[in-house]
Specification:
Blueprint: E1 2-5, E2 22-25, H1 27-30, H2 32-35, H3 51-60, H4 66-108, H5 112-121, H6 125-156, H7 160-169, H8 172-176, H9 179-207, H10 211-215, H11 230-240, H12 246-254, H13 265-275, H14 279-306, H15 310-321, H16 325-360, H17 366-382, H18 389-417, H19 436-453, H20 459-463, H21 465-483, E3 509-511, E4 518-520, E5 524-527, E6 532-535, H22 536-541, H23 548-551, H24 553-556
Antiparallel strand pairs: 1-2, 3-4, 5-6
Helix pairs in contact: 3-9, 3-12, 3-13, 4-11, 4-12, 4-13, 4-14, 4-18, 5-6, 5-18, 5-19, 6-7, 6-16, 6-17, 6-18, 7-17, 9-15, 9-16, 11-18, 14-15, 15-16, 16-17, 18-19, 18-21, 19-21
Length: about 575
């Protein structure tokens, strides 16, 4: 929540800011150790972690076991042949679209929402994608929480309804503290997770060496057959592609990557590739591994329990661990789900913050939106969304892939063709409310693919609805940008820190004329209303300026930065 205070006395040598109310932020919103620059550019002074640390933290978030359940569900429904093709195809598409997005987030210090703004969607156009991303985080939080609750029920008999509540509450203290706490949790739990991940497959390699051969002949539990089916392939790929928005959660960590230099160039590139699109390599292996474990356990536990990751884990470990198989499997599942659900809750708080800041022009702090995201996830768990896994994820993937494909097309095609600015402009002061290039492409692609998903265009179009979404988004985004000659990317030129500006050091800081806090230059815009610099968040929260700078770019053009002394590096703080 914001409040106004009287204008303080300027520092010696500084030009006094224009008269008017100043903004101060609530304690939680002003503490960047918790806030983590949730609505703005992550400054160099905050990016204290090495490429390896950032990559390790980002990869820690893919410890989830939903991959196991998704892979098992695909193979059980469509058979091994179609399931294998579906998983590998989806992984390839996710990897290719993730490369440009990961590099842009790491290079510019921006999260997925801010990248989307400048990559063809516009300032308010990306509001819709914030909701899409938020829905991804609470859907998968609910899915992962359901798996954790199943493990606790198996281990100690805790009713799953109470387990849902426990899985929700347990992540709050960690997510509350932000990136620093997340990095520690991911590092501390990584050894346990790695042992738990590998051990079941090691046991089966010795105890059931012929199981993999039998698995490749598995025809599913619904009579699909072990061979290849185009319909099964299309539908299975749609389910696997529901994970495409995971790149957003990876981006929430990648924005803290340090600047790339000649000294760290190789490590930087490797870390971004591994922690960005590289997550899906492990993800695809987990989907196939989860399907394999479920197949081995099928006869012992039945179809329903085989799709719950805890039961196959127990069955796989039993030959070596005996009665200790249950607690060992439960520990692995609980650790895995904590690792991913702190990420889901963290990323959800970021997306909700972005959404509400633009709609309400208020920002009480990222941490408050943790509770909103978790409340929705808890409701989904109590509604037993796990039972409708395939249908829910198949529907969601139509929208998710249209969004991600449009952003990737802008970064790869439009920027190279010169229809989109060569950098990412995320500040309200320079953006149109809606850019038809990305936003229009996503709306058209997702609408057509959803109609196909519900069978309007026939059986094959229904099965391949996600391919329709991806294809239309990739084609329409450059086509609209070309037809409009890139007109809707910038409402006015950025002469402060855009490509045309002569800036010697982007780490130089300026005091925001509204909150009077120092921010690095990429987070600063020139504001004709304030007659001085304004930080991106204060600009977003201003509901009374009337967007003068965008409506009259000629009259408002040109930098009007006040000649205040810059603040030494390392002093940058945030609202």
């Amino acid at each position: 929540m914001t409040e106004t205070v009287t204008t303080p006395t300027p520092e010696p040598g500084a030009v006094a800011p224009p008269p008017g109310p100043r903004r101060s932020y609530a304690k939680l919103a002003a503490d960047e150790s918790r806030e983590d620059y949730s609505l703005r550019y992550a400054p160099h002074s905050f990016r204290r972690w090495s490429p390896a640390t950032v990559a390790g933290t980002a990869l820690g978030g893919i410890a989830y076991l939903a991959d196991f359940a998704i892979g098992a569900s695909i193979v059980f429904t469509y058979g091994f042949g179609s399931g294998l093709a579906s998983i590998l195809t989806a992984a390839t598409l996710i990897f290719l679209t993730g490369i440009p997005i990961a590099r842009a987030c790491a290079k510019y210090g921006l999260d997925m929402d801010l990248i989307t703004r400048g990559a063809g969607f516009g300032y308010f156009g990306s509001t819709l994608t914030s909701l899409i991303y938020a829905s991804f985080t609470f859907i998968f939080f609910a899915l992962e929480g359901s798996i954790m609750a199943q493990a606790m029920h198996q281990a100690v008999g805790l009713p799953v309804e109470i387990g849902y509540l426990v899985t929700t509450l347990i992540v709050i203290p960690i997510v509350f503290r932000g990136m620093g706490a997340l990095a520690k949790v991911q590092a501390w739990t990584q050894p346990i997770w790695l042992v738990g991940l590998v051990l079941p497959f090691a046991v089966l390699a010795f105890e059931a060496p012929d199981a993999w051969g039998a698995f490749t002949s598995f025809g599913g539990t619904e009579g699909a057959g072990a061979g290849f089916s185009w319909i099964g392939f299309g539908l299975g790929t749609g389910v696997a592609l529901s994970l495409i928005a995971q790149i957003g959660e990876q981006a929430d960590y990648l924005r803290f990557m340090p600047a790339k230099t000649e000294e760290n160039r190789r490590r930087w590139n490797l870390a971004v590739l591994a922690a960005g699109p590289g997550w899906v390599v492990i993800g695809a292996a987990k989907q196939l591994g989860g399907a394999f474990l479920a197949f081995v356990a099928l006869e012992a536990v039945g179809t329903t329990h085989a799709l719950e990751p805890i039961a196959p884990q127990i069955e796989a470990l039993r030959p070596w661990l005996g009665s200790f198989a249950l607690p060992a499997a439960a520990l692995f599942v609980i650790v895995s789900q904590i690792k991913i659900n702190v990420t889901n809750a963290y990323s959800g708080s970021l997306s909700w913050s972005n959404f509400f800041s633009r709609v309400t022009h208020r920002h009480p702090g990222r941490v408050w939106y943790i509770f909103l995201n978790l409340a929705i996830a808890l409701t989904l768990m109590e509604m037993n969304m796990f039972a409708a896994l395939n249908k829910l994820l198949g529907f969601y993937s139509n929208v998710g892939i249209a969004w991600i494909a449009a952003v990737a097309a802008d970064l790869v095609v439009n920027k190279r063709a010169g229809w989109s600015p060569p950098y990412i402009e995320f500040k309200r002061a320079y953006l149109y409310a809606v850019n038809p290039a990305g936003f229009g492409a996503m709306v058209v692609a997702s609408t057509v693919s959803i109609l196909a998903f519900f069978g309007l265009f026939g059986t094959y179009a229904q099965a391949f609805s996600t391919f329709i979404a991806a294809g239309l988004a990739v084609v329409l985004c450059p086509l609209i940008a070309w037809a409009t000659k890139g007109r809707y990317y910038l409402a006015r030129p950025n002469t402060v820190n855009g490509p045309s500006a002569e800036v010697a050091d982007e780490r130089a800081t300026h005091l925001c004329a509204v909150c009077e806090t120092a921010y690095e230059l990429p987070d600063i815009a020139d504001c004709p209303v304030q007659a001085g610099p304004i930080c991106s968040l204060c600009c977003s929260l201003d509901g009374a300026c009337g967007d003068v700078c965008r409506k009259d770019p000629q009259g408002a053009g040109g930098p009007v930065l006040l000649p205040v002394p810059t603040v030494p590096r390392g002093v940058t703080s945030g609202a």
